[in-house]
Amino acid sequence: MRSASNFAMLESMSDDILERVIKVVAEAQKLPIEKITVESTFEELAIDSLDGIQLLFHLETEFDINIPDEAAREVRGIKELAEGVEKLVAKKAA
Amino acid sequence: MTHRRVVITGLGCISPLGPDVESFWAKARLGQSAIAPIQNLDMSDVRFQNGAEIHGFVPTEHFDDKQLIPLDRFAQLAVVAAREAVRQANPLWSDAERERTAVVTGSCYGGKTSEDEGFREIYANPGKRARVHPMTIPRLMANAGTSWIAMEFGLQGPSYTVSTACSSANHAIGQAYWLVRSGICDIAITGGCEAPFTPGSMKAWEALRVVSPDTCRPFSKDRKGLVLGEGAAMLVLESEGRAKARGAVILGEIVGFGMSADAHHVTQPSVDGPTLAIRRALEDGGIDGNAIGHINAHGTGTPANDPVETAAIRRVLGPQANHARVTSTKSLLGHALGAAGALEAVAATLTLARGEAPPIANYLGPDPDCDLPLILAPEPCNAEYAISNSFAFGGLNAVLLFRAYRA
Q: Which one in B125, B357, B360, B378 has a CA-CA gap of 20 to 30 Å to A52?
């Protein structure tokens, strides 16, 4: 179950994208999905730089997007990750 | 400069003969060959069909899922072999000693499996944004074996990988031996690791026309070439003083190392290069050829290598070449390229330590150009000194000199 805090932050973010991002993170990191919230930081989830690179790889596959190095470098947590993905998905659709 | 004696206190290997040293030796001492039809690859489009594969290796029995992500098969094998060697040696490292422990491994190819799988996607889908796994570079780097062994045991001393094709492991072990002998390091983990069975690699070997259509028959008449193999072997080397002080069981001793280059031809061997490497190893150990009682030959089973190696051994050993007993464990293990010298170092160490010599398999009869005293059935060995030869494509030669340990 996703925690309620996921929805509180979601005024401008698609539920679907956040849900899929969290699912990718859970699968890649072998974490229980309920442990991951929109507020989780990579530090809290013990996601190191190498894990981060692999997350990007899996997200590129999941959303069929191309995540530029510069955008990736600034991501520190789930919220930024989902927001970044949403922007790239929107850009692709435009 | 006074040299410290360098002893072997741990052995580890994973090979086509079995998952550890004892299973390896149980078959090797009897001359049982692991060469068989290749099962892990589709070989329908390859002229040769046989190889020496490791069967029954389940990576998840040795590593957790997360550890496996950046680990190519060749590095997995390296770590598994190193764990066995370290378990046996039980080096009892202090923090200061971890900083003075070297890790030197050999690999010809590095992570060929990951490279082959990843790049196939790219080449098959040009312009289609095909991607490779983000761990492809860490997986394929040839030094991965060394790096993961260093991380596994927290070792911070001089650590690197040597890549000299079929001589990689002998060059690595020789370097590690010198690091300990000179006092730069007190302990070293050293050996070689290779996992060459990929579709691209098989086609490349086929094209070179050196692989036997049937099996590996070193020094035999009607030999038709080498057979590829895979595996890893690691040795723990230690200064004799340290090993004795902590009461370690000493398995053997390395007493010399010699290197040379043919400077001749990229694939055609010369007699001069191997001769020089064997001579340098004996000089390094301060002995002459009369002391050599056992030889673990390079013995690839190619038409070109075996007579050249015979001539080189005869040149250095003189009349003793009629007495030093010769084996080639490549007839059992295939040619594991950058791991070959390490597997052969384990065999040479056990031959001297246990007084039994593994025979050459698949022998069909004498070739007058390979007229050495070949070991063709299991036999006792009372040799004090043994050499183990490796001669690489590119003409780079490395010879290790072993001695049965006597306090």
A: B125
Domain match, B267 and B241 both: no
- A39/B contact by beta carbon, under 8 A: no
B273 and B223 both lie in a single domain: no
| CATH no., domain A5-93 | 1.10.1200.10
B298 noted as active-site residue? yes
Q: Among B245, B277, B303, where does a domain finish?
A: B245
Do B358 and B221 lie in a common domain? Answer: no
B237 SS3 class? strand
Query: CATH number, domain at B308?
Result: 3.40.47.10
Lowest mean pLDDT among B2-6, B9-13, B92-96, B222-226: B2-6
Query: How far apart are alpha carbons B10 and B345 in whole angstroms?
Result: 12
Verify whether residue B381 is a known catalytic residue.
Answer: no
Q: Which of B272, B271, B313 is nearest to B292 (CA)?
A: B313
Q: What total number of domains does chain B contain?
A: 2
Residue B12 lies in a domain: yes
Percent of chain B beyond pLDDT 70?
100
Q: Quick check: A46 contacting B, CB < 8 Å?
A: no
CB burial of residue B292 (10 Å; 0-12, 13-18, 19+): buried
Q: Are B172 and B131 in the same domain?
A: yes
Q: Which of A9-23, A56-70, B12-26, B64-78 has the lowest mean pLDDT?
A: A9-23
Cα separation, B70 vs B72, in Å, equals 7
Query: Are B10 and B35 found together in one domain?
Result: yes
A30 reaches B (C-beta below 8 A): yes
CA atoms within 13 A on the CB side of B232: 31
Instruction: Find the closest chain A residue to B129 by CA distance.
Output: A66
Spatial separation of the C-alpha atoms in residues B132 and B118, rounded to whole Å: 5
Read off the pLDDT band of B151 (50, 70, 90).
very high
Residue B1 lies in a domain: no
- Asked if B66 and A60 come within 8 Å (Cβ–Cβ), the reply is no
Cβ-nearest to A54 among B65, B131, B135: B135
Asked if B70 and A50 come within 8 Å (Cβ–Cβ), the reply is yes
pLDDT digits (tens, 9 = 90+) for B22-60: 999 999 999 999 999 999 999 999 999 999 999 999 999
